[in-house]
Amino acid sequence: MMKLLLRMRLRHRRLSSPPLTRLLACLLLLLLPLSRAATVVTRLPGFHGPLPFYLETGYVDVEEETGAELFYYFVESERSPGTDPVLLWLTGGPRCSAFSGLAYEIGPVKFVLEPYDGTLPRLVYSPDSWTRVASIIFLDSPVGSGFSYARDPRGYDVGDVSSSRQVVTFLRKWFDAHPWLLSNPFYVAGDSYGGKMAPVVAQYISEGNEAMRHPLINLKGYLVGNPVTGDDIDRNSQIPYAHSHGIISDQQYEAAMANCKGDYVSPANKLCADVLQTIKNLMSEVDTKDILQPTCPLDSPNPGRDASARRYLAEEHYYRISDPPVEPSSRCFEYRYYLSYFWANDNATRAALGVKEGTVTEWVRCKRSGFPYTYDVPSSIRYHFNLTTRGYRALVYSGDHDLGIPFSGTHAWIRSFNFSIVDDWRAWHLDGQAAGFTIKYGNNLTFATVKGGRHAAPGNRPKECFAMAERWLDNKPL
């Protein structure tokens, strides 16, 4: 019966009437274990009309002892879901919600950027969604991110290694419940700190496959954007990047090189420490995630809300708002983050997404404190090396206006592998213009920059990043 319903669900999703589709989905969900119960979402609060794509949300238990469950958003490919790749998307932080990927970067919805007036923020379809060519699982990981939770407080005490293994547990259980996708090519993807965890998760999947742990996941590779490594190379590359972009002077750069001897992380003498403090002050004058954009401190003055907004807030439309975030300027990229706080904490939103009552009292995009976290993968570089030398495909891309994780530092650790060059440094194009630059190395490793891209490049260069992802996933040259 289970297999029959799965086949019917796949065959009829595009062909049957909406009521029949919903009925088949509901019958399937009733057969799934309770801890993995899913919700088929056909409408989202703030989005006009039915969703033009298939969205499923749900939980998967990843630790029985503490009752830890990871929440996910699954969006099916709009092109050919039976054969298109399946991506797992991990967001940075750690403990930033995967909703960031869904609504700000590569997903099929985005916020209408209009001044918040107390009513529910509006969503519209994003034409540059990667779900046009791939099915994507947006995962709230580690526990404590987004709507993921644990019944026992001990379940929130995780780190790089334990959370990565929980992701693998999630995937094996998720594919158990979605076996029709097991034969599709699978990639682990993520940006920022998620870019650090992606190769770790991919290596654990690979090791599990080699040990014949079922279900066998059809891992083909991974892709990461402006990835943190945890290695000193990330921060050491900031100084030469800042110099090359006119943020620090020749004299300051020369003083740093002379007194710090290439180590800008742990100053060994006072002269080094002094020049690094000067440089730090200068770097604070720009947005490190996008050096061309205005700086938008989170503690900027709140312009306040009008009377209608205050009335709306008082009508208990929201789940449990204790202290709303400070409202940034609408010209800031972060304004969309501000809107998401009110959208995700709305009662109607939580009901539509199938969020379990009493599990997460207040949704925030990134939980910066409150839960322990162990950084026990000091550097992810060896995981990149291990995977690529074992034949897995890799795309590493960088928005070239990111000062936090500069493209030059990322390219430096890639070059340290000493792989042969298959296709030398060149421009890649979109609409007849250079969209960035790329180089392809042996072992199927591609590095690309996104011209004008910020720390999460799809956020401000969506068309370029979609073109890049589509070509790479389709095994075509950038």
Automatic annotation (TrEMBL):
Q: Which InterPro entries does the record associate with it?
A: AB_hydrolase_fold, Peptidase_S10
Molecular function terms, GO-annotated: acyltransferase activity, transferring groups other than amino-acyl groups; serine-type carboxypeptidase activity
Among its keywords, does the record have Glycoprotein?
yes
Which sequence ranges form a coiled-coil region, renumbered to this chain? none
Q: What family does this chain come from, according to its entry?
A: Belongs to the peptidase S10 family.
Signal peptide limits: 1-37
* SUPFAM superfamilies associated with the record: alpha/beta-Hydrolases
Tell me, which GO biological process terms does this entry list?
proteolysis; secondary metabolic process
UniProt protein name: Serine carboxypeptidase-like 19
Q: Name one Pfam family in it.
A: Peptidase_S10
Which keywords does UniProt give here? Glycoprotein, Signal
Keyword Glycoprotein tagged: yes
Q: Identify the domain of life.
A: Eukaryota
